[in-house]
Amino acid sequence: MQPRSILITGASSGIGRALALVYARQGISLSLIGRDRERLDAAAAAARARGAEVSLGQLDVRDQDGMAQWIEAADTRRPFDLVIANAGITTGLAPGDLAEDPRAVRAIIGINLIGVLNTVEPLITPMCARGSGQIAFIGSIAGVRGLPYAPSYCATKAAVHVYSESLRGRIEARGVRVSLIIPGFVKTPLNDRIDAMKPLEMTGREAAVLIQRGLERGKAVIAFPRSLYLLARLSRILPVRFVDKVMAHFKVNIPKTQERIR
Ligand SMILES: NC(=O)c1ccc[n+]([C@@H]2O[C@H](COP(=O)([O-])OP(=O)(O)OC[C@H]3O[C@@H](n4cnc5c(N)ncnc54)[C@H](OP(=O)(O)O)[C@@H]3O)[C@@H](O)[C@H]2O)c1
User: Is 229 a catalytic residue?
Assistant: First the structure.
């Protein structure tokens, strides 16, 4: 499917911005959501230069009413045929830390999980009524198995994975595709903050091209790099304490987010 009206959250940076640019061309309408006005304007300018029509929503994905109003109005003007719930943050632990800051944990749940719901919920019923459309979720390989360096990040991504599976089972019979994207390491500002080994890291554009291709094929799961994803899947069936021991060997430092609950 070649979408013509696309909503992307977190389009001011990283994977979201790269996605906006791979889709941007004549005849495509992009609705881009983020908080930082300057970065949003820069992404919009780059997309318009490729011929796309762009509208911007300077919104916090945690704002349920603001998101619903903006998305419903945009969907009425030009019905979305693809939504990509991408906006997200990370938080984690430094070596020696035992527990995450509870306010940071609630902030990441607000953005990475509630923010995803605020993005897709307004479109489920209208897309099902039209009998067409595609809903895409950005998960993470970190959501396949809990990692000791980022408990709440892994938990939000695992929740998104399971939510998308449930939704797929419920609405695909109504003609609406649901796709879960499971990236490994992608070079973005989010990922740059993490101090760790990053095997098979790719650029935002490389990731965006793989995502676009997978979505156009209507794939249920778009996971890359394949070998890292299969390793993560394998870690789920190996004895848990063995996997815990292996994970404990890696030195990983993930700064805690400065985001706090609002
Ligand atoms: N990079 C990786 O290695 C990797 C791997 C797996 C999964 N992911 C996932 O990919 C997604 C994008 O991450 P990225 O690496 O591209 O990070 P990024 O470059 O930091 O971009 C994050 C985007 O999310 C937006 N955002 C964050 N909080 C928001 C909020 N409360 N309301 C609205 N927008 C918000 C940011 O907008 P503002 O700057 O305007 O706030 C920004 O556009 C995330 O869900 C992340 O978990 C990334």
Answer: no
